[in-house]
Structure formats: C-alpha cells, structure tokens
Amino acid sequence: MNFKNLHPEKRNTPFRGIQIEFSLFLYSAVIFLTLNTPGYSHNSTKKTINTIVRVSIEKTTDHTTGFEQPIFSEDNFCLETYIETKHELWINRKNLNDNPDDIYNVSLYLANGDKPSKNTRKFVRFVNESQSPKKPGLFIDSLDHAIDLSKWLLDVHGFIPVISPITEPAVGYGAALAGMFFIPKKKTDAQKFQMPDIVGAAGGLTGNGTWFGGAGYIGFWKKDQIRYRGIVGYGDIKLKYYGTGVNSFSENSTDFNIGSYFFLLQAIFRMGESSFFLGGKYQLGKATITAFDEGIIPDRDIELINSGIGLIAEFENFNNVLSPTSGLRVNLTYDQFLQGLGSDRDFGRFTFFTHYYIPVNKFWDSGFRIESQLATGDPPFYMLPFLNLRGIPVMRYQGELTALVETEQLFMLTKRWGVVGFAGYGKAFRSLDELSEGSSAWNVGTGFRYLIARLLGLKMGMDIARGPEDWAIYVVVGSSWLK
User: Fold this and answer.
1) How confident is the model over 16-32, as pLDDT tens digits?
2) 121-139 pLDDT, tens digit each
3) What pLDDT does residue 464 have?
4) Are 169 and 469 in contact (CB under 8 A)?
5) Residue range 470-480: average pLDDT?
6) What does pTM read for this prediction?
7) Cβ(445)–Cβ(419) under 8 Å?
8) Can you tell me the distance from the alpha carbon of 175 to that of 184, in angstroms, rounded to the nearest whole number?
9) Which of 214, 248, 448, 478 lies 20 to 30 Å from 324, alpha-carbon distance?
C-alpha cells in the first residue's frame, strides 16, 4: 500500500528490512546446495546521491521466515523514516551503497522543491534520533532484536562452531566438534544474493573407542551454475554387523572395527536457467576390517581399496537449500566401482531419493521423504545399503535393496522458535530374488528448531528419536535430510 494518509503527529515507526532467501552445508558427507531468493538491490557505485527521489512502499511477508518486510517501488530504497507532506512523499538518501541495517538521516522536501515547515523538520529529527531502532550488534537481528548469526556469517566471514553430543546407538555416547567458515561472494551490480562458499571440518570421539576426523569444501561457482564439493577424512569406527534381510536380528550380530580413508570430488552443472542439474563424482576409499568373531565376516572383505565414479541427475527448486519449507528435490545417482580405476572389486549402487516440502499455512510446514538403494555386482558387506532413519543404528538393517518413507512436520510457534515431529518406516531386502524375505523397521520422534540466521534462512535444533531397539539424540543444522 502507499502511505498516503500519514501525518507527522502520528509518529509512525518506519518499516525496515531486507528480503533475502538462501542456502548452506554440514559435516563429512552431510552437505547441500543452492538458493534463489529475492534480495535487496541498490546502486552499487559509491557516490553521494544529491537529487531528490520519490519513494512509495508496500508491505509484504517473507514466506521463508514470516517476517514482514517492505517492498520499495523504486530501486528498493531502504526507507528508515517517512512522512507525508502536503503533496507527496520525498526522501533524500546519501550513499546508497551503505548497509541497509544502518540508521540514516533524511531530508524531506515538498513536491514543488520547498522545504517543509519548521515543525515538520523537528519531527523528522525526533524520529531519527529517538524512535529509530538502535544499530544492531554483531549477533543481534535488526528486525526483531533476537540472537542471530546472519551478520557474523555474511559480513565478517563468520565461523560457526558446533559442539554436538553423539548418541548414535551403533557407536555409543560421545561428542563431535564441527566448524563451518563462510566465504561470501563479491557483490555484483545487480546486488543479487549469492550463496557463499563454505569450508568445514569435523571430528569426534565416542565411548566405544570410535573416532573420526575430516574436512570439506562446498562451492557455488559462476552464479550457481556449478555446485562443487570436496571431502577428505579418516575414521576408526567400531560397529556391529547384523547380516542382511531376515537375518538382521541382534542374536546374529558380531562386533568389528573398520579403519577407513575417504576422498570425494563432486560437481554438478545447472542446465541453462532451469532447476535441472547433471554431473558426476569420483570417490576413493581404503578400508581395513578387524573382525572379533571369525567366520561371520567374509575374509575377502577384510582389506579393500574401493575406487569409482558416479553419475548424478537432479531436479531441485527449494526455496532454501539448507532449511527448505517449500519445493521439490529429486535425485538419481549411480556409483560404479571399477578395477580399471584401482578398485579391488567391481560393484555398483543405484540411489534414488526425493524430498518434498509444502507449507500448509504460515505456521505449519510439511516435509515428505522417499528413498531407495539397490546394490549391484559384488560389494563388500559394509557397502551394502542400510535403512537410514533417525533412531535406528547405522548398518542395523541391511540388504541388497532398501526402501523407506518418512515425514516431518514443523510448527513455528513464533517467527524464531518451532517444534517438529517425525515418523518413518522402511524395509531391507536380502536380494532382488527374495523380496518376500525382508526386515522392517520404524522410527518416531520430536524436537525443536530455532531460526539462527534469518538472512540465510538457516534453522538449528535438536531431535530425540526412537527406533525398534533404542533412543537417540541428534543436533540438527539445516534440514535433517541434507545430502
């Protein structure tokens, strides 16, 4: 709406804000992709604007965060104070390249070029000095004055440390320390928001002697036409092997230790201006198995080099890659490990997954997930697909074929805080020839979310989940289904 009926004596508070949508990443093999969001735009040349500019504004809602924000009819000016004169609203803003969160003094003029009355000028000075919000701190949001890391991450090349408890039933209790360093892009003339590149590292230790460490880089290149990731790491992990299919019961489990190096390079390329991507990857790993019970784990799986390439086809139109509330992602990947590339064995794996988010209303966002994996050739036991659901131990339900469904419902109680509930069901089949022989599993849980970086649309929180055998707790950064 145009502000045609405002009067100085009403002392109305100015609308402020920026409209931006976004995306980001996470640790060893837990990472993500892009964001197309409206952003603010203004003149990129650093010069003083001395001409008088007419401005009218309308109010809208950023559907990613729920914050009301202004839309400016001319060049997205950040209007800090406004006032209606006898004729029309005019404003003189200096240095349009400044941060829109800063407070500015304004000059008001009548449409005919005359300055307004002395009383009007006093009102403008009063608004600037007394009613305008204070300049926000590094960790305080300018709209609601809540704790927020947007400015730290984007303006100061911020580093996020994440200390997370490990309650994965497969490895026991422990702790993980991870960190992400954001590298913002240089501003362009259009001032369109661009996803920052991200460098991350993580390490952890658990009570059963498991430990791991790794580092990664996520790049969004050429204005998000290319998405790149690289990961390197090592883990010394103590797990249980339960067998496959209907044999997946605890009485058949055996303890083993796997020491493994891992290296991944991946790049996908956007098809023109569409939401379709095509690309590939190379992965290399060396695994050494120490079995504590002889005869259950095949001797030929004890020490292997696994080297292979992958083909990736994907459609993704999320409104926010890290914490989406609407949109669809469909991914089909085929990995082939080849002796010709240095692998000790030839085998492959098809992976299909789809994530669909739909906002039911302004407070309720629904998410749905379908995932299936199929092993081909002669894979080692630890490369067989397994059901990946919160609350279920890693490798607990394995088979040549797995399939699962899961839903997650997020209810935002305020613009910052929300609660989440989730449930899922899956089945692991011993082989394609024995589809009647499979082991099923379920999960259910709840948790909370906090909008920790509004300009990035990034949420963090914690989940508690229950599977058929045990409880587990997870610290969540972004979507629970990040891949």
Assistant:
1) 332 323 232 333 332 22
2) 433 333 333 334 445 577 8
3) 95
4) yes
5) 89
6) 0.72
7) no
8) 30
9) 214
Query: In 378-454, which ranges are E strands?
Result: 401-412, 417-429, 438-453
Mean pLDDT (whole number) for 150-160: 71
What does the alpha-carbon distance between residue 406 and residue 316 come to, in Å, rounded to a whole number?
A: 19
Distance between CA atoms of residues 423 and 406, nearest Å: 6
For residue 350, give the nearest of 384, 387, 394 by alpha carbon: 384
Q: pLDDT digit string (tens) for 185-227?
A: 776 655 566 778 889 999 999 999 999 999 999 999 998 899 9
**C-beta of residue 329 within 8 angstroms of C-beta of residue 359:** no
Q: What is the pLDDT of residue 187?
A: 66
Name the β-bridge partners of 348.
336, 376
Instruction: Report helix, strand or coil for 358.
Output: strand
> What φ, ψ does residue 127 adopt, rounded to 5°?
-60, -45
Burial 418-448 (b: 16+ CB within 10 A, else e): bebebbbbbbbbbeeeeeeebbebbbebebb
> Can you count the helices (H) and strands (E) in the chain?
2, 20
DSSP 216-258: EEEEEETTTTEEEEEEEEEEEEEEEE--BGGG-SGGG-EEEEE
* Contact criterion met (CB below 8 Å) for 14 and 83: no
Q: How confident is the model at residue 438 (pLDDT cuts 50, 70, 90)?
A: confident
Q: Compute how many other C-beta atoms are within 10 angstroms of the C-beta atom of residue 87.
A: 11
pLDDT at 193: 63
Identify which of 144, 209, 135, 140 has the alpha carbon closest to the alpha carbon of residue 172: 209
Among 218, 128, 154, residue whose Cα is nearest residue 18: 154
What is the full DSSP assignment across 260-273? EEEEEEEEEEE-TT
Please state, in angstroms and rounded to a whole number, the distance separating the CA atoms of residues 257 and 452.
37
Question: Which of these ranges, 161-175, 261-275, 302-316, has the smallest mean pLDDT?
Answer: 161-175
Contact (CB, 8 A) for 449 and 408: no
